[in-house]
Model the fold of this input.
Amino acid sequence: MNKTTLLVMLFGLFLLLPGCKQDTGGLGIELDKPAPDFTLVDTTGKTWTLADLKGRVVFINFWASWCQPCLQEMPAMQELYRFLPEDKFTMLTILFNDAPVFAENIAERLKLTFPILIDPDNLAARSYGLTGVPETYIVDKQGVLRKRFIGPVEWNSEEARLMLMQYIAQ
Done:
């Protein structure tokens, strides 16, 4: 194979790589604008509506049981969930393209106690312009989307805790 052919093939591969992420059909989302509202049911049958959580900082994490980076950040998310004041902070995780039974098994194995919401038609994922998992959004007390994190984050770090505590204090 000559160099030109190899370069053309590599260039084509790089053009295709972004398509390896699961496309949600999302339209994108803007920071510092009202967060898209949703109503979803969690694995225990409780209904959650984002608009009902005004007055609290809301942490929204999209994940899947088949996503290794998602699973790696779960223990740190659980620590964060236990650390922050439950009367001022709500953590919602939303299952993406996955079966609830798999999420329940992981929650049991990792001793996760935060809510796991089911988005059967990926409508919440679309409204947030999800690019893949894990992906996390921080919504302030007024319901405004303030932060978007694409990829795994070390949520039990001092930096993450301070950032969230600043939103809680506002």
